[in-house]
Amino acid sequence: MTGDLAAAAEGCHIFSGCGYPAPGLDDFNFRKLFSIGGWNVTKPELIAVLCVIIIVWFFWAAFAKPKMIPGKTQSLGEMAVLAVRDNIVRPVLGAKGDSYMPFLTSLFFWILVTNLMELIPVLQFPSMSRIGFVWPLVGVVYIFYWYLGFRTKGFIGYFRSWVPNAPWFIMPILIPVEILKYVFIQPFTLGVRLFANMFAGHLLLSIFMVATWYLTSLSIGLLYAAGSLFMVFFVFLLELLVDVLQAFIFTTLTATYIADSLEHGH
Amino acid sequence: MSATAVLATQVISVNIGAVGYGLAAIGPGIGIGLVFGHAIEAMARQPEASARIQLYMWIGFALTEALALIGLIAPFIFKY
After folding, report:
1. pLDDT band at A138, cuts 50/70/90?
2. Which residues on chain B place their C-beta less than 8 Å from a C-beta of chain A?
3. Among residues A89, A100, A154, A221, which is most buried (max CB within 10 A)?
4. B57-72 pLDDT per residue, tens
5. ipTM for the complex?
């Protein structure tokens, strides 16, 4: 931890001539914990590795030895996979989307579990609020739907399918806008949406948590601290919703982009 | 420029950023209201289509919300 949190931990309270140590960008920079061969490992990286272990362990336990009559873990795993299939893949892609199930399911659970790490005490950091974790994910999705577009429609055909049927005089406006949309705006908003939601969520949580500690003093401050503590719980529930929603939206939009690449004609 | 004037400009520049973001959030606010409002209306008219409507509602929500979030992170991107 750096800056403001350290100041808060040193007994910086209200009415003690100490300003509110507002959380900011410093809270997203972590000291290196240890380094392996010149690679500095920080907290977000450790959390990401932990998430991979959790997901792989869970699905391994559920599906390594599948049975006709599922046990407890297998039932849970089947529920998880079916939830993704029935709520995301089937409505967007239809029955042909089943071949993209492994990709979309892993994407969904990877984002969901890393996001939920934001709410677990001690860990309390969503890896996706470092944009370095988001761009590789977006890169994979981007390359994947471009590849699918080229494979289904051919090289020229994919570019042609970007432009919808319209009167010729709109074309000078439409063509640049569509190119900008497919090349730049789609991947940018896909990544920034996830990043900014997690960034704002972590900032919001830390603002109220630091405020609760800062306002705690034997005075009227206790009353303010209680209000701030209430806000911590409120934001906690809000973030629970946002975490699930962002995983859902990222996967749904990925499925939409894939459907866009696969469909013929506009 | 006197010290007070320098201080005043700094304070004002900081506050205008916050006001700017407030103004930028009006559009997405109206947009999200429209998205959910019309989705609820559609679901009330045709409850059997709610699953499909909900899917498009969340997509529309995500696309609208992105504008507000880009406004939120823009100062962090262009800070340096």
Report:
1. very high
2. 51-52, 55, 58-59, 61-63, 65-66, 69-70, 72-73, 76
3. A89
4. 988 988 888 888 888 8
5. 0.71
Domain ranges of chain B: 3-77
Q: For residue A45, which amino acid is it?
A: E
| Alpha carbon distance A57, A64 (integer Å) | 10
With beta carbons under 8 A apart, name residues in chain A contacting B55.
87, 91-92, 252
- B61: which chain A residues are within 8 Å (Cβ-Cβ)? 249
Q: Do B51 and A91 touch (CB under 8 A)?
A: yes
Residues 6+ apart with CB under 8 A from A112: A243, A244, A247
Contacts of A146 (CB under 8 A, 6+ apart): A158, A261
Check: CATH 2.40.50.90 for B3-77?
no
Task: Give the residue extent of every domain in chain A.
Answer: 3-262
